Amino acid sequence: MARTVLCKPGIGTYYRTATGPRTTPLTDPKGIRLPREISIGRVNVYSRDTNSVIFEPSCRFWVDGEVDEPDAQWREDPEAFQCFKTSYAYDLIGKEHPRIVPRLGQDPWTGLPILRKPTYGSLWSFFEEYTSKLYTVEAKATSPNDRIKPEFLPLVYQWSLQLLSALVLIHSHNIAYGVFLEESCWISAESLDISLAGFIYSDFRDPEKGWQFRGDFITGLEFSPESLPPSRMVRDPTLGTDMFMFGTLIYRIMTSYEPGEGMGHSLGETARLMRDGDWLPDLEDEFMGKILHKCWRFEYDTVEELQSGVQALIESYGWSVKGDELEDLDIDHIKTLLQGNITGSGQ
After folding, report:
1. Which InterPro entries match (predicted)?
2. Which of 37, 88, 178, 296 is the most exposed place for a label (fewest CB within 10 A)?
């Protein structure tokens, strides 16, 4: 179960710097909606202007006309805490990274974070648009037998390296990212690079102030660190559960299913099998199956160790890796396979 986490005293106005009436619209006057809508949990991502978006919490106490007030009730809601926590995590990290969507600042009146606008949208939108082109049925594969097509597998390899590259920096500041949602993984229309957006579910502590920013897992996910056998069960995000959650995201990308789905499991069966039988889904080696098992069993001590394992697997299939990219990966060809529809327009 996800916990209710209220804002720390003062965090609700920590990023509020305005002292007078609003002079800049909170959201884009031309339309708050992006061509491909993004919501990360209960945080909406709205257009701010041509080049930026703003995180706006879906709060029960959000009242238009009162949101700018320093004592507005919405500032105490859990969803507001997730937004302010996002800015705080960016502050702790203190520098930009090509695989973390840049924060551009905060709205001076609400204190809500402003990020660079994605040129395409989220990974969730990508799969909504292209699932029919991305997957094929492998008759001899373990159930579920949908698999990413061979021509798109190198792109997934590159995404895995890019996500881990971001995670190395995040973990260096002792920040647990929390949950890798498809909605918080944003895609570049030009390069198809992937970047993490925000720190909605993150868990970390400010060592100077002693402030603890609690994160949580998502209620309703059966395949979760909370469902593991008692000896390995984890209830709160840690650096280790980040690797578990990374493995879960990669499994979803490789198969188009959540772990445990597409296998005939009844409601609650996946969680029961994990808890009572230490069950984990299998996946073939080329789809990173052994690596995912090690993620789910917490067999990597650090994300750097996981990163090295992923790179070694990729290189074993003939690819050269430079940084967090595959050398000679033909992105234009991949776009052609997708019929050239990767654009920022959503049309």
Report:
1. Kinase-like_dom_sf
2. 37
